[in-house]
Amino acid sequence: MKESSVRTVGWARSLPVERGVKTARDWAHEHLVALGWDTAAPETADAVLLAVSELVTNAHVHAHSTAQLVMAWDSRCLHVSVHDRSTTLPAPREPSTERVGGRGMLLVDALADTWEARPCPHGKTVTACFRLPEDTEH
User: In terms of Cα–Cα distance, which of 6, 108, 10, 112 is closest to 59?
Assistant: First the structure.
């Protein structure tokens, strides 16, 4: 049986709470431009940036933790992962007029093709995957 391999390109960045979400978005945008997603699939690139904002915000606000942001493109899916020190796994909540926040994972759920949260020895990692639209050449 012949093994197949997948070539993956990836980037990682540590974002302390005081660095802010804009730093995460700007960093992610640079790599989306490098992949050509800003012109080939601008709506998907915007969805990735919004998801990065939400995931890093969750790490900073709810986990009070540095966010470890990793983006990896394997030619099928862009995996956007954020690790933080909290062991509490996120879940989408129904919108409420009683709460100001609480819509982040609902947005990630709507934007990403898939997402998952996994416990780790020192916290958790939330990964959202984004595929290019079918008609996109890349």
Answer: 108
Both tokens of 13, joined, read 């960045």
Instruction: Output helix, strand, coil percentages for the chain, rounded to the nearest 5.
Output: 35, 25, 35
Would the pLDDT of 1 be above 60?
no
More confident position, 14 or 101? 14
Q: Contact, 85 vs 53, CB < 8 A? A: no
Helix (H, G, I), strand (E, B) or coil at 68: strand
List the structure tokens of 10. Answer: 């990836």
> What is the predicted pLDDT for the residue at 12?
95
3-class DSSP assignment, residue 61: helix
pTM value surpassing 0.85: yes
CA distance 9 to 116: 21
**Residue 2 pLDDT exceeds 70:** no
Q: Quick one: how far is CA 104 from the chain centroid?
A: 11
Alpha-carbon torsion 43, 113, 4, 118, what sign? positive
29 and 42 in contact (C-beta within 8 Å)? Answer: no
